[in-house]
Specification:
The chain is an alpha/beta fold. The chain has eleven helices and ten strands. The chain is elongated and about 65 Å long.
Length: 277
């Protein structure tokens, strides 16, 4: 009897920065291969621009979702576990979920694992993973973590994460985002109220790519580092992303295992969503 072919897809936006890719997205492939023996594991990028740059610059090919589903179907895979490798269940992750739903008739079983912050336990696990990486802080210092941000209601994820950090005694950890509230301007108001003198900057991002190197730590006047320095703060930058932490990647592995075993769901367009049969 022919052995069934099974696959796990780790779906992310992708990155053109090879060093951070090796520490995060490539490391995740190795993690999933250990957790899913007998499955072929693929890293899949949703960004066509990233795919284009990698192919043109490095001759490095990465599947997008359309390509990988076509490949799996043509090669007679029967089971597919699709794992969102995103911070939260916002636009990008839900778009992946919708693409999975379109494939239900093409495979015997296809399931979807939700993003990093999906339930209360995930927040606790992320805090436990991040806190040991935080620098020691005096009363007049603060850690400012930069997330991407979104117009999706899931933006509240960042505020909940900060709230839980404060409840655990880390009330000098502040979360800001690039695309939505709280912006860096809002962080400045809080820092002034707290009379902080030194700020440690860290990315709350899966990969340390363009946002970390330029928006957070760049030398241009509009980077968070330069904005804070212009306001008189002593600034120290940490460039490691949370995707480098094995404990963070393990949360994604756990979500994929839950999905495979039919023990997960997410809300999609106002209904319970479980793309498995």
């Amino acid at each position: 009897m022919e052995q069934q072919k099974r696959a796990v897809l780790i779906v992310s936006f992708g990155t053109t920065y090879n060093e951070t890719r090796e520490k995060t997205l490539d490391a995740a492939v190795a993690d999933f291969e250990k957790a899913f023996p007998g499955y072929d594991v693929f890293s899949v990028y949703t960004s066509r621009f990233v795919k284009y740059i990698l192919k043109k610059r490095d001759d490095h090919f990465v599947y997008n979702l359309e390509e990988i589903f076509k490949h799996l179907k043509e090669n007679n895979y029967s089971e597919v576990v699709v794992q969102s490798f995103h911070i939260m269940n916002a636009f990008e992750s839900r778009l992946v979920a919708a693409k999975v739903e379109e494939q239900v008739e093409n495979f015997e079983k296809i399931t979807f694992g939700t993003a990093l912050f999906s339930d209360r336990d995930d927040y606790e696990k992320v805090i436990d993973a991040i806190v040991p990486t935080l620098p020691e802080r005096a009363a007049d210092t603060a850690v400012v973590m930069m997330g991407h941000g979104t117009d999706h209601p899931s933006q509240a994820t960042y505020l909940m994460f900060e709230h839980l950090m404060h409840n655990k005694g880390h009330d000098n950890v502040l979360i800001g985002t690039i695309e939505s509230y709280p912006f860096i301007e809002d962080i400045l108001v809080t820092l002034k109220k707290r009379q902080a003198k030194k700020v440690y900057l860290m990315p709350l991002l899966i990969v340390a790519g363009d946002h970390t190197l330029n928006d957070l730590a760049g030398d241009e006047d509009d980077s968070w580092k330069e904005i804070l320095k212009a306001e008189g703060y002593e600034v120290e930058v940490f460039r490691h992303s949370i995707g480098e932490l094995p404990a963070i990647r393990n949360i994604f592995v756990e979500h994929a295992l839950l999905a495979r075993d039919g023990r997960t769901f997410m809300m999609s367009e106002g209904k319970k969503y479980r793309p498995a049969h």
